[in-house]
Amino acid sequence: MIFAIEEINRVGALLPNFTLGYKIYDSCSTPHQALKAAMELTGGEESGSEFEGETLSPDACHGAVPVVIGDGGSTQSLVVARFLGVFQVPQVSYFSSCACLSDKKEFPSFLRTMPSDFFQVGALAQLVKHFGWIWVGIVAGDDAYGRGGAKIFADEINKLGACVAFNEIIPKNPSQTEISSIVASIRSSGVHVILVFAVEQDVAAFFDEVVRSGLTGMQWLASEAWSTASVLSNPRKYHHILQGTLGFAIRGINIPGFQDFLLRLNPSSPDASKNPFLVPFWEEVFQCSLDIHAGGWKADGKPPCTGTEELKSIQNTYTNVAQLRISYNVYKAVYAIAHALKAMRSCVKGDGPFPQRSCPDVENVQPWQESSDEGRGGQKQYKWGSTVESVHVKYRKMILSFIKYL
């Protein structure tokens, strides 16, 4: 997000003589933190309490923001969308795919650069039809994403003549007994084709138990939330279980200039103090401490950082930007907003989209006035305030393009 905003400001062609600012909050993947962030962003002033993980741009204003990007999870976005909808503040999510969020009566100002699960589940159902499977199990997360996706999938395969053998739910923060019970149910069912529709944290807990219990010989179907997750594809302990897994992934792309931007980040840079995420990230990557107390070692046992660490010297998921997926969705969201602002600034008096064909006051932008038709490169995106949600992120070649764990 910061990269996209700074790129737009630096190039200047899209919004000449106009500077975008930002406020970034960490929702910690929890609904109450997401709602708190939304309230502070739209309230125009801070609540007086420190908000963990707040990042401000040098150009950040102290008034209420006209648009909110986020959240990632569908459960968090549901809470935020209900709140922002009351004030007609546009919300653009980059990873919330729950089909429930397409209800414009309930969520009038919610938009996204992520397809609804309706399309993904339709493709998964076609996989079932393509391979002739008639007896399928479902394991879903206990949230809007998991339960919603599982329901649509069950309905879709029933239409195709297939049956759902079971629908198990992975609880949040599950106990060993709860996870073991799910695996035991799978083993006793005799089913060999199972869809796992859950976020990667829940899926990792589930497959840890699958590994421990020695459950093998399953054909797993993956939802996009974990089909490309490195937490499952990298550790070798999962390979013998997940080999042959089929699933779909959102479009990946290389964003020009983004890798150089990432590799330039350094906690000693002048702007580092504005980024509360940089220090903990740096300490985790290099296993050293920037917060040194008496004795030269931090309480957690990490040695002091030397100051010579460079991100270009490491190879991990952070530095690999060849196939950006979620990040690209964030990038597109920023550009969609920029195009909306450009359209407002280009409005011709007497030919505007508002009552009496009026144009908005560009010095006093109202959230409900923003609309966008295109993103970078002329891609069709969406129109805020319309009754139809459209996104240009597509599952390409939905039947033949799938993820295989090798």
From TrEMBL:
- Please list the residue ranges annotated as the Receptor ligand binding region domain: 1-370
Region of interest called Disordered, as start-end residue ranges on this chain: 358-381
InterPro entries, sorted: ANF_lig-bd_rcpt (IPR001828), GPCR_3 (IPR000337), GPCR_3_Ca_sens_rcpt-rel (IPR000068), Peripla_BP_I (IPR028082)
Task: Say yes or no: keyword S-adenosyl-L-methionine present.
Answer: no
**UniProt keywords, alphabetically:** Cell membrane, G-protein coupled receptor, Glycoprotein, Membrane, Receptor, Signal, Transducer, Transmembrane, Transmembrane helix
Question: Which GO terms of the molecular function aspect are on file?
Answer: G protein-coupled receptor activity
- Gene3D superfamilies registered for this protein in UniProt: 3.40.50.2300
Q: Name one GO cellular component term.
A: plasma membrane
Per its UniProt entry, which superkingdom is the organism in? Answer: Eukaryota
> Which membrane topology describes this protein?
Multi-pass membrane protein
Is Transmembrane helix among the key words of this record?
yes
| One Pfam family matching this protein | ANF_receptor
* Name listed for the protein in its UniProt record: Extracellular calcium-sensing receptor
Q: Which organism is it from?
A: Oryzias melastigma (Marine medaka)
